[in-house]
């Protein structure tokens, strides 16, 4: 039985990581280049559907191949406590805790970020100490280390981010101050992934300023020629075929948006499969695009508007009148009945949040495919 090769499920590894090789190389080379390499602390941002979770999965695969330990986490209450639980040596139990703020370790007790006393150890076991103890174990080979990936970082609490940032910074300093040869030093790599505004919150936080030195990578649309070639290759590998013109049309309709690329591919392939055909036709592409747009609205467009203020929504609704074409700034002034300075202010905010982008002098357009059409339907 033929299996659909396209994987639009969130976080599922697609058959081809198109348009992402430079970011993958940055990370892989950082593990090889040792403690202090910039790519060992990385901030990956992008709108929903840009493949952030997929990138984290690929980073963990690379780290495992290089014999690193990996820890995958998603930001939510108790993040630091879960990291400590994973890192703490087995059999170690909390017997007391003091100093707030505190963290709750499920099934054990409540522990302070500052001092979490364990019965098996006289010294406080903090996240920093837990990382150091793990790195000292024989399970981690010389020159290797621990990779921690944290998805949906915008949902992390301030205290958790402070604790993680502080711990990682100290681990790097500890390694730098050791007498161990550089090629034998064990280290920590950490990759945060989240929505664009997450970066602004992190970098504006006075306690996590060390993250300013992290390697920042923004996931963007994939060039259409790369999408077309990926369609041709992936379809052929699955035992079907598609013409260059139809593959280009599918790529054009995806707009190079990674999640939409997978959705269009999935549904056009499935359309041909239901007919029992080995060739994906123009009609299959059209049917695939229709089904993909419905799924895209629910999975991307609706969540993209979460947290948008009433003023920002007014701006976006005024833009939606022109979508999928560009919008003139002058038209926004007229439609919103606001001043040009008001329009300029929210233009800057929405560009920063990757919901819109400049499209030429005095023009803007939506950065999220189909968002304008979705807003018109509301």
TrEMBL record:
GO terms for molecular function: ATP binding. Residues 17-169 form the Orc1-like AAA ATPase domain. InterPro entries: AAA_16, P-loop_NTPase. Keywords: ATP-binding, Nucleotide-binding. It holds the Pfam family AAA_16. This is ATP-binding protein. It comes from Bifidobacterium jacchi.
